[in-house]
Amino acid sequence: MRYAIALGLALAASAAAAGSGPTPGPVARYVTEGKFEDVRDDVRLAIQARGLVIDHESRVHEMLERTAKDVGAARPVFRAAEAFSFCSAVVSRRMLEADPHHVANCPYVIHVYALPHEPGRVYVSYRRPVGAGGDAKALAEVESLLDGIVREALGLP
Length: 157
What we know:
Elements: H1 2-18, E1 27-33, H2 36-49, E2 54-58, H3 60-71, E3 80-86, H4 89-98, E4 108-114, E5 121-127, H5 136-154
Antiparallel strand pairs: 1-5, 2-3, 3-4, 4-5
Helix pairs in contact: 2-5, 4-5
């Protein structure tokens, strides 16, 4: 029994080190072990490797730190947090031709962040595209793009 528990813990640790699959729900969230800067840079490179241009890099952590005193914050939310905004002319056009109201899904944003109480752990997340009607194929293509970028950055199959 102890062997089975030890094996289970070892496998869980191994999965966390290599990165884990996304959480269910409206936000896909992956977790990996490593340095925030390395994961952030890997996400940036995975976006650019697809020929996509990052329109904006939001330094979420810096904004929260800068405004903490003004809003009476008592504790830090992140150890580090950044978000990359970008679009794909091809994928976005297909999604918007299927339903122009899906413009609310643009631009795409991938977040990379680390929590203060979890040293060595880094999260990568994105909002799953949402919509209604017969455009599931176009929305699935957007999610496939986002998921592929994150998986590549984390070295997942």
